[in-house]
Amino acid sequence: xxxxxxxxxxxxxxxxxxxxxxxxxxxxxxxxxxxxxxxxxxxxxxxxxxxxxxxxxxxxxxxxxxxx
Length: 68
What we know:
Blueprint: E1 10-16, E2 19-24, H1 32-40, E3 48-54, E4 59-66
């Protein structure tokens, strides 16, 4: 039995997906507006309870053949 080797091409594929991040923080302030302003001045890395959620499905953005 003579089996021919099937040659395959190599491809580089770039895909993207929208990811939503949600954060929570508790802080003290004199008013709603002051709390909002204070919260917006704190970098996300210092907030608590970071959660990631998928916003949509994975989508191919670009494909190209790769030469070996």
